[in-house]
Specification:
The protein is 45% helix and 8% strand. It has 265 residues and is mainly alpha-helical.
């Protein structure tokens, strides 16, 4: 990873976890063609297991369009270091799209979505209008947790790295071209795709970006025999650079701050 300048913005003094605001989430969801349970879980800031249990689903893949799912009220907890952060996604209204459709897609209560945007629930939306959708942090947290569990790496480590890198923002591109939530350079995404993922990952998509970052962290932990500090330094600076130049001071600060975030998780 190239040197980045977000150390000063790190959330020092993080303590325990706080719950995702439950009032944002919708309590039911009607399955649409092409939906998967994992995507639905992320949009509602929960887990596949929680939705499957709430709906007595023996086979998570056996969803049908039009099926109504109960969404459990238990939300994944958010680390305290996210508590003062921007919690809004921006959504551009598509042709024929109205507030209830947007609310269903993001798993947000329609009344909350309308109130957030200062409009009525039945107000006509013009294509191209921008809606502010609350609950961004819960959705990203669910994605980080889900992907980390699938890859087999500690979700707290992935979340702390992602927070340090981007503040959990997929639309962030650094001055050096690092992309997304995990701030991966395109060449790193290509390397992970070829050697770790076994398929092409598009780091401009949030799910693939997180998958690439989680796979890289897992790989670096294996290379460094489970040493978190060494793996974090390699993620930030790169093993080749560390071998040539030693560990930079900003790399040491990066490792220290991420470790503090982890200690508070």
């Amino acid at each position: 990873m190239s040197s980045r300048t977000r150390l000063a913005a790190a959330a020092l003094g993080a303590t325990a976890v706080v719950a995702t605001p439950l009032a944002v989430s919708a309590s039911t969801y009607v399955v649409r063609p092409g939906d998967s349970l994992s995507e639905i879980a992320v949009r509602h800031a929960t887990t596949v297991e929680a939705i499957a249990e709430a709906n007595h689903l023996a086979d998570a893949a056996a969803l049908r369009a039009g099926q109504m799912l109960q969404i459990p009220t238990q939300a994944l907890s958010l680390p305290q270091y996210t508590s003062e952060s921007h919690d809004i996604d921006l959504h551009t209204v598509g042709d024929g799209e109205q507030l209830f459709q947007v609310a269903r897609y993001f798993g947000v209560d329609p009344t909350v979505l309308a109130r957030t945007n200062g409009i009525g629930v039945n107000e006509h939306l013009e294509p191209g209008a921008i809606l502010h959708v609350p609950g961004r942090l819960g959705r990203v947290n669910a994605l980080l947790t889900q992907v980390s569990n699938r890859v087999g790496v500690n979700a707290d480590v992935v979340a702390a790295v992602a927070w340090m890198e981007s503040g959990w923002q997929q639309n962030l591109i650094s001055a050096t071209g690092a992309v997304g939530i995990m701030q991966l350079e395109p060449f790193a995404g290509e390397w992970v795709s070829r050697y770790l993922a076994g398929r092409r990952l598009d780091i401009h998509l949030a799910s693939d970006n997180v998958a690439a970052g989680a796979l890289l962290i897992r790989h670096l932990l294996a290379v460094h025999n489970g040493d978190n500090g060494a793996a974090l330094a390699a993620y930030y600076q790169g093993d080749a650079s560390i071998t040539r130049n030693g560990v930079y001071d900003d790399t040491r600060r990066y490792v220290r701050v991420v470790s503090e975030l982890l200690a508070a998780a």
